[in-house]
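ARCHIVE CARD
Drawer: 12
Card no.: 0347
Subject: one protein chain, sequence and derived structure
Cross-reference: see card 0346
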Amino acid sequence: MVEWFRANETKGSGSYSRQTPNSSARRCYNSLMNAASLLWIAEAAGIDELTVKRAYEAAVAAGDYRRACGAIRKIITWDMVYACVWERAEESLFLEL
């Protein structure tokens, strides 16, 4: 996972090359085509267990990996992930004070 995200900061190579590096976490999340990784991100961000389970079930029902990733993103949007990460960061900063 870390290597995939790190590679997004470059222009890539071969068939994965791009005009400009990608430094957008939103774009990375929305481009990621691995259902297990999307669910892992959701869990790590602190999305509640029931929502992650619903997203998993939707992915299984969707069929192929592209549809599975789309099904997960319909339930667990980037804005939800961002909000959870931001909330945890604020809590951490508050505890340090």
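Annotation on reverse: Residues 2-96 form one domain. The chain is about 70% helix and 0% strand.
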